[in-house]
Amino acid sequence: MRPRGGPLREDRGTPVTEHFTTTEVLDPLGDLDADAAQKASKNRAKVGSARPSSLLYTYGPGSVMDLPHFTVMPAGTDDWERIWARRSSIPTVHAPRLLDAVRRFPGQWTVQELRPFPWAPKESIFSKEGDDLGVPARVFPQWLRCTGCDLLGRLDRFAYVNTNPYRPDQARFEHPNCPGRKGQGKSKVPRQAVPARYLLACPDGHLDEFPYDWWVHQGASCPAGVEFAPLTMDERTVGKGASASIRCGACSATRPMNEAQGEAGRAKLPGCRGRHPHLGAFDKRGCKNGTRFMLLGASNLWFPATQAIVVMPEAEAATQETLGVQLLAEAGKKRVEKYHDRLDDLREYLEDEESDLAAWSDETLALAVEQALAPEPTLEEQTEALRDWDPTDLLVPEWNYLQKDPLGPQHEGDAKSGLALTKKAVHEELKARHVSRVLAVDRLRKVNAVVGFTRIDEMERANDMPARIVPLSRSGRPTWAIATEDRGEGVYLQFDESAVAAWEKRIYDTPLWEAHRQSHERNYNARYSETSKDVAPDSRMAPPRYWLLHTLSHVLLREMAMYSGYSAASLSERIYAWEGREGRGPSAGLLIVTTASDSDGTLGGLVQLSDPEQLWRVAHRALERAVRCSSDPVCAQRTPKDPEDFLHGAACHTCAMASETSCEKANRFLDRRFLVDLPGAQGLGFFR
After folding, report:
1. Does 631 fall in a domain?
2. Residue percentage of the chain with pLDDT more than 90
3. pLDDT tens, 84-98?
4. Ramachandran class of 565: left when φ > 0, alpha when ψ lies in -120 to 50, beta otherwise
5. Does residue 281 fall inside a structural domain?
6. Structural domain count of the chain
7. What secondary structure, in 3-state letters, does 534-581 show?
8. How confident is the model at residue 231 (pLDDT cuts 50, 70, 90)?
9. pLDDT surpassing 60 at residue 11
10. Parent domain of 549
11. Inter-residue contact 191 to 147 (CB < 8 Å)
């Protein structure tokens, strides 16, 4: 079955807009799409497929995705428009609370709806449904190396082979008539070409091909006077960094790639040209940054800027912030302008269209009209609003809804949310350990959206994050954002606030907490962007209650995987752990879920574990295992000391760390000593 994210299709079209400009001169750093020779034909054949979660978190627009024989870059959302144009109607994802969060990001104010990936189900592997849909992508990088003769050349030096529509894994580039490394004449068998694995990136998210011709000639032209020098890449030690050497066949100049590494190598690199390959364009404002040497496949090449919510019935009603957006989507701007002072006529139109908005009160409808006709905020206003917004606000409505007891078994709040809850009895042993409530989440719907991405630093690592997020659209005024829906099940545990608060107050005064705080400060100053130096590190430090519930979540994830029938990597966490402040009460709870992108969701293995006896057995075993680690006493006594700056204590991959698909904090803020008493750290554990 083809994954729901849909096929990737190689596309060589490059539009030009007022916000970006493409190069008109073909050069080693240029986009080959600008070459007139490439305009003769376009290949939109399927070259691969990916799951929605992969396209959202790992290989979204602007990333470099590995295919069996070459790499591609999913294109920006402008190129998706012509894919959606092949359908008379476009599906949308209902999640007003998430839509409001997306619209807070600079450049996203005009977003009016959330759309899934262009995909349609097939009746069989050979049927044609959905063949015209898919995520457009371009080959990147567009410099390849022949595996037979080490020829290093642009994309047009090689032949593209993709003849079998049912075998996209066979799509590849070949070097016809390859003479081999010894130059013994033309080979009868074409040799495969693979991507040249060096790139240039900058902190503002620009990405470019490495200028091999410029590099080997020390920034000058080839002394032999050839326009396009014949280059080879000699690479004999694969997988050991920048181990290759570039050689010019015309003048015999040679230069190793390892000269570009490190701080010393950075000074030898050219400046950034402001290129966005996923948009097929260059930033018309240019870029003043220096470039960073980057290996293809580096983990810091692409960090998604995403937001996600678990859909809650009452929380997903029309929010105050999205009233105008929903009215514009239903009635259109011209009709809203026409009826802005005649609400009865506007309501009559909504009733004729059988819109749910017709049930709004006069006050709500008037507010929606006011929002719909309000002037667009400036970029500075959007940036300031995002700085003042706390992402925890997305979790607060979920926490508030989970405080209410469901009316009965598998109680559904409404049909749109897809949430069904059952209140479970709490085992006496768990009550003694301050577990106050347990809910079986029989069904849930999780919605995820991506608003852009960053390079070099992940989204959380700089206070200038709004300016660093790379847009997914050339226009700068997108009307929709990419979203996915996952359905599944889970178990919710809530803890007694008074017990958590008393424990947390005690932890704040311990040397262990002070050691973690100082380590976090060192980590922040050493690894975060230079532009974040005016932000207090303690403001980004998770409170002790988060460390407690996060560590508990990880040990439960491991244990539940043994009983539920799901792999540990398919389980994920959602932590509700913040201290109270004005306008927001404290929280102490965790939700462990498993979700799938198909409509059927999951199989009920987690819900069964919410049974009192089952949950106590799992929790007891998890806490019992947390007392011991095969890496003890090293793990149990791990405390960061200057100059160490790691963000965990007594936790390692043997005892408490989880896969990156499960953990919401990349295995940071974990310490078993906050969970249970360990040798040498008596009296710190919450579950003593």
Report:
1. yes
2. 36
3. 888 888 888 888 888
4. left
5. no
6. 1
7. CCCHHHHCCCHHHHHHHHHHHHHHHHHHHHHCCCHHHEEEEEEEECCE
8. very high
9. no
10. 496-674
11. yes
